[in-house]
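User: Can you recover a sequence for this backbone? Please restate the input before giving your answer.

Assistant: Of course. Working from this structure:
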């Protein structure tokens, strides 16, 4: 039987890492990208990008996204949800501060967003999850007759 993972364990893990791989679609073309993120107590995720990036344009057309967060020999978390831009200035400032704080655990790290050139203002997106599952990957081998994932109620 697989080790069941609690909601608290998942949140603690998500706060210990700060990089996700996000998947979206732009018309009929898939798109994946690596992003910095922050997560709140209700499992809402926040990330920032320029408004003219491929990902921002894709999410504007279709806000349904999927993303994964993982750390070798720790945990894998998969999430589906809907991304919407924040419009409230106070919420935007808090999210940007939280994203910056989330990267403090990465030594000698410079956020890729600082290297993004081109047109457009920065936009902060909030992802409200519709589905979350997690897998303990701390063991060296997995031989299970049933799924190793734990669905997390949100």
């Amino acid at each position: 039987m697989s080790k069941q993972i609690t909601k608290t364990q998942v949140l603690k893990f998500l706060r210990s890492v700060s990089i996700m791989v996000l998947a979206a679609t732009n018309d009929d073309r898939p798109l994946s990208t690596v992003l910095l993120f922050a997560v709140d107590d209700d499992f809402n995720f926040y990330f920032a990008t320029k408004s003219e990036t491929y990902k921002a344009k894709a999410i504007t057309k279709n806000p349904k996204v999927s993303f994964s967060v993982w750390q070798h020999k720790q945990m894998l978390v998969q999430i589906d949800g809907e991304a919407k831009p924040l419009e409230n200035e106070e919420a935007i400032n808090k999210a940007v501060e939280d994203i910056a704080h989330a990267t403090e655990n990465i030594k000698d790290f410079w956020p890729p967003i600082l290297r993004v050139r081109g047109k457009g203002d920065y936009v902060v997106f909030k992802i409200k999850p519709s589905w979350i599952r997690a897998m303990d990957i701390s063991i060296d081998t997995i031989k299970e007759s049933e799924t190793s994932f734990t669905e997390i109620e949100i």
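That completes the design. The domain at 7-151 is CATH 2.30.110.10 (Pnp Oxidase; Chain A).
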